[in-house]
Amino acid sequence: MASSWEAPERYFTLARLGQGAYGIVYRVLDMALGVEVALKVLTPTAGRGVDLYRFKREFRSLRDVVHPNLVRLYELVLIGEPWFFTMELVRGVTIREHLAPAADPSVDHPSQPTLTGGTRPGRRATAPSDLDRTRDAFYQLADAVAAIHATGKIHRDLKPSNVLVDERGRVVVLDFGLISDDAHEPSADRTHEASAVGTPGYMSPEQVLDEPLSAATDWYSVGVMLYEALTGARPFAGSRAEMMRRRTLESPPPPRALV
Description:
Layout: E1 11-19, E2 23-30, E3 35-42, H1 50-61, E4 73-78, E5 83-87, E6 91-94, H2 95-99, E7 114-115, H3 131-150, E8 153-154, E9 163-166, E10 171-173, E11 180-181, H4 205-208, H5 215-231, H6 240-249, H7 255-258
Antiparallel strand pairs: 1-2, 2-3, 3-5, 4-5, 6-7, 6-9, 8-11, 9-10
């Protein structure tokens, strides 16, 4: 096996894809169905209280929602220890990589794709060479975010590594670990509840200030990704603390000032 985690008999572990605060994602073969899936397992160090609650909430929040731009969730399982769930295996690259100008115009994707739960790529320094490709990707992303909000949920952690694009150009939103309720009304469900935080580079001002959140929180994160896709830079530079401070006090440079 490619990992020390011993999967149940039904699953054969092929590779470890990535790890978050409380879950590890593997690529496994579901031998009962004869297909590869992604499997997210609760880490051994995760607490049994709030971490388990978030893990279950991540799965149950959108289990019954079928949308072409949301990763499909399959089964939540407990066989002994620990808890795990299975989901669609997305073979693709991050939206940042998808929109980055290629060194060779005939090459659309890197030779080694990122799978569900993959790692964050490096930042590029140029604007996208194909604006139609950018429009299409963000149209799909907006459709996915609207579908999440239609269920009354807020994603709270939208960022390039949670948005993959497969070889056909299909955009897929992943990782609902910070999802919360009340998308249509400001919520008391703050960002910093018991150490759960968004990703600093893409957090909204209300997340930074630990204020009530709404659907606007996710749209701000989408806006940061679009700004980055168009300019090759995030709206605010500096250290983590400086970025977070500036976004609550300043407006970013207009994209035309950079490109």
